[in-house]
Write a structure and sequence with these properties.
- By secondary structure, this protein is of the alpha+beta class.
- The protein folds into 2 domains: 146 residues, no CATH class; 112 residues.
- It has 6 helices and 12 strands.
- It has a 7-stranded mixed β-sheet, with helices on both faces. The chain has a 3-stranded antiparallel β-sheet with strand order 3-4-5.
- α2 crosses α5.
- 22% of the residues are buried.
- The N terminus is likely disordered.
C-alpha cells in the first residue's frame, strides 16, 4: 500500500510522564502505572521489571515504569525518546489521553445498543467481537476500535457486519485518513465523546476503581432501553452482497414496472378497441339520425305541401259553398215567385171556370 505523506510538521518536546502505557508496540492491551506497581510488589518485591512498555502516540515509543520518591507510579519515555505531536497516522495532537483510551475500551464492552447515524438512520445492533488499535496498510494508519455486529436492518449486509470506530475527543479525523479509509472501503464511524461519558478525573489521580466504575457507567447507559451511540459516517462503503441485493431489488422493480406497463398497454388496447366500437356505434347512430332527420324533413315538406293544398281546396270550397248558397238563395226566391205565380194562375183558373 502507498504511504501517505503528511504536510504537518512534527514537534519534539521533552519526555512526558504518563499514568498508563501500552503493553506492546501494537494492539490494544494496556496497563495503568498503579496496577503495574501492585504487580511489582506482588511478583518482584517492588523491583521494576526489565520490560519495555509503549507510549500512546503513534508510532509507539518504548517507555519504562518507575515509582517516584513520594510513591507515585508512572511511565516515562525510555532514553528520552520524546513525544512527537501532530502525527497524521495516529492521534492528532500527540499522545493519547487516558479519557480517550478508556472510552475506546468501554466501546468493546457494549453488547447491544442503537447506532444513530445522521443521514443514514437509526440501527439496532448487537456487538459480539472487537478490538482496539487496528492498523491498516503497513502500520500507516491506526483506527481506534473495530467491532463486529449483527442487525436486523440492512446495515449488517451493507457493512458486512463490521464497523471501524474513530473516537473524537479533541481532534477530528483529518482528511488524509478519511480518504484512505474510503479508498480501503472500510465502514467507519466517528463518535464524539458525549459530556456524560467524559472521564473527568485527572490522569495522575485516577485509580483502577475509578476506571472500573467508568466502564460500568458507560455500559449501563449505552445498553439501556433508551441508550444509543450517535456517530458520523466518515466512510460508508457497500458490500458486494448488499450491492447485489440492490441490483436484484432494482431488477425486480424493473420487472414489476414492466408488468405494470404491459397491463397498462393491455388496458389501453382494450380501451382503444372499445373506443373504436363506440365510434362505430356512434357513427351508425349518426347515420340513423341523419336518415330519420331526412325522413322527417321529407314528411314535414309533404305535410306542408298537403297543408297548402288543403288550405287552397278549403278556400276554393268556401268560395264554392258561398256561390252555392247564393244560388240556393236565388233559387229559393225564384221558387217563391214560382209558387206565387202558380197560386195566382190557379186562382185565375178557378175564377175563369166559375164565370163560365
Amino acid at each position: 500500500m502507498t504511504h501517505i505523506e503528511s504536510k504537518r510538521f512534527d514537534k519534539v518536546v521533552k519526555s512526558v510522564e504518563n499514568p498508563w502505557a501500552y503493553l506492546y508496540p501494537t494492539g490494544g492491551a494496556w496497563i495503568t502505572a498503579e496496577a503495574l506497581k501492585r504487580k511489582r510488589d506482588l511478583e518482584n518485591n517492588g523491583k521494576p521489571f526489565d520490560i519495555d512498555y509503549y507510549s500512546s502516540d503513534w508510532p509507539r515509543k518504548p517507555m519504562r515504569h518507575r515509582v517516584s520518591k513520594n510513591g507515585k507510579p508512572l511511565f516515562y519515555y525510555k532514553n528520552g525518546a520524546g513525544n512527537p505531536t501532530g502525527n497524521p497516522n495516529g492521534n492528532d495532537g500527540g499522545g493519547e489521553s487516558l479519557a480517550h483510551r478508556l472510552f475506546k475500551d468501554a466501546l468493546l464492552l457494549i453488547k447491544e445498543t442503537t447506532l444513530v447515524i445522521p443521514g443514514m438512520g437509526n440501527f439496532k445492533v448487537e456487538f459480539y467481537e472487537g478490538e482496539t488499535e487496528v492498523t491498516i496498510g503497513k502500520n500507516e494508519y491506526r483506527i481506534d476500535a473495530y467491532r463486529k455486529f449483527r442487525s436486523d436492518s440492512a446495515l449488517e449486509k451493507k457493512w458486512s457486519g463490521e464497523v471501524y470506530i474513530e473516537v473524537h475527543r479533541t481532534n477530528a479525523v483529518h482528511k488524509e485518513k478519511k480518504a484512505r479509509l474510503n479508498a480501503e472501503r472500510l465502514p467507519t464511524i466517528e463518535i464524539t465523546i458525549p459530556d456524560i461519558f467524559k472521564f473527568t478525573i485527572p490522569e495522575e489521580q485516577a485509580t483502577d476503581k475509578d476506571i472500573e466504575e467508568y466502564f460500568k457507567r458507560v455500559k449501563r447507559i449505552i445498553e439501556s432501553d433508551k441508550g444509543f451511540l450517535k456517530a458520523m459516517a466518515i466512510s460508508n462503503p457497500s458490500s458486494i452482497e448488499y450491492l447485489e441485493d440492490l441490483v436484484e431489488e432494482q431488477q425486480n422493480i424493473i420487472k414489476t414496472k414492466e408488468k405494470e406497463i404491459q397491463q397498462l398497454n393491455n388496458k389501453i388496447e382494450l380501451l382503444t378497441n372499445e373506443t373504436l366500437t363506440q365510434n362505430a356505434a356512434y357513427q351508425s347512430l349518426e347515420n340513423k339520425i341523419s336518415t330519420q332527420s331526412n325522413l322527417y324533413q321529407k314528411i314535414k315538406s309533404e305535410n306542408e305541401n298537403l297543408s297548402s293544398n288543403l288550405l287552397e281546396k278549403m278556400t276554393t270550397f268556401q268560395k264554392t259553398e258561398s256561390q252555392l248558397q247564393g244560388e240556393i238563395g236565388q233559387l229559393k226566391n225564384e221558387r217563391k215567385l214560382l209558387l206565387i205565380t202558380l197560386s195566382l194562375l190557379f186562382t185565375f183558373t178557378i175564377l175563369v171556370i166559375y164565370f163560365l
